[in-house]
Specification:
By secondary structure, this protein is mainly α.
Length: 271
């Protein structure tokens, strides 16, 4: 019995698709920023009004409901994205034409830039906002308004973007699929991902100690340690730039004329 379910092949490539398509980047970036601006307005409206007492009916209505809706949604989105990228992976990456591979590299750069934007919102903006809140308001539960937004909304979003980019590279690009695992790329998404388990350790400690009085408490060090793993981006960049150089050295026919290298034989003599 023949297998009627076949994954897409890369042998046939459309030359009509642009090499660098920035539309996904602008659309995804605009959606993320609009979503977080809405979240910030929601915090402004219901933070002080319903966020000071976790046992109040107002807290259950305006904050616990957010937790119950968005946390499962993030998990479903994570599993759905990983499943989709794996299910639609090509059969043989050895057939990828140079132009198509370069197009996919630029698409991967879209993933990386969106990942960086999501990390800014989650690990910088909302993390610093959360620290300021806890230094101003004595918490009565680990599920404070800012903790709900930070740990169960913003962190999952950047984790989804980071793992999604890794899966895209692993299933679409020969550099990351046929030459073993990229340690740099693994560290690039695993480090920030581990901030979420670190949050569980931190919240456990905050149950017994008021660490907001000294925000550089040891249980907060994990955020800094794993956050610095994002510097692995430099290693990923070297791998990507190295592959782009190899592709351009082999074939420049798919590039615009003004991007092509001028060889000494074709260059006009100096006057």
């Amino acid at each position: 019995m023949s297998d009627t379910t076949q994954r897409p092949t890369t042998a046939i490539v459309s030359v009509d698709r642009p090499i660098a398509d920035l539309r996904p980047l602008w659309i995804a970036g605009a959606v993320i920023c609009a979503f977080y601006v809405g979240v910030r307005l929601y915090e402004q409206a219901f933070g002080w009004y319903a966020g000071l007492d976790s046992f109040s009916p107002e807290f259950q209505k305006y904050w616990t409901r957010v937790l119950y809706i968005l946390a499962p949604t993030a998990l479903v989105a994570f599993l759905g994205l990983i499943g989709y990228l794996w299910k639609t992976r090509p059969d043989d990456l050895a057939t990828v034409a140079p132009r198509e591979e370069l197009r996919r590299i630029f698409y991967l750069l879209n993933w990386i830039l969106i990942y960086g934007l999501a990390i800014y919102w989650g690990a910088s903006y909302f993390s610093e906002q959360d620290a300021t809140w806890h230094q101003s308001v004595i918490r009565d539960s680990a599920f404070t308004p800012l903790n709900i937004i930070k740990f169960y909304v913003s962190y999952p979003i950047y984790i989804i973007a980071g793992v999604g980019g890794f899966m895209y590279a692993r299933t679409r690009l020969p550099t990351f699929a046929n030459k073993g695992y990229s340690i740099a790329y693994a560290l690039f998404f695993i480090g920030p991902l581990m901030c979420l388990p670190g949050a569980a350790l931190s919240e456990w400690g905050c149950t017994f100690w008021y660490m907001e009085e000294l925000f550089v408490a040891p249980l907060h060090w994990t955020f800094v340690f794993f956050g610095w793993f994002a510097l692995a981006l430099f290693g990923v960049s070297l791998q990507i730039l190295g592959r782009i150089r190899e592709l351009l050295a082999d074939d420049e026919s798919f590039l615009p004329q003004w991007l092509k290298t001028v060889s000494p034989e074709t260059a006009s003599p100096a006057e």
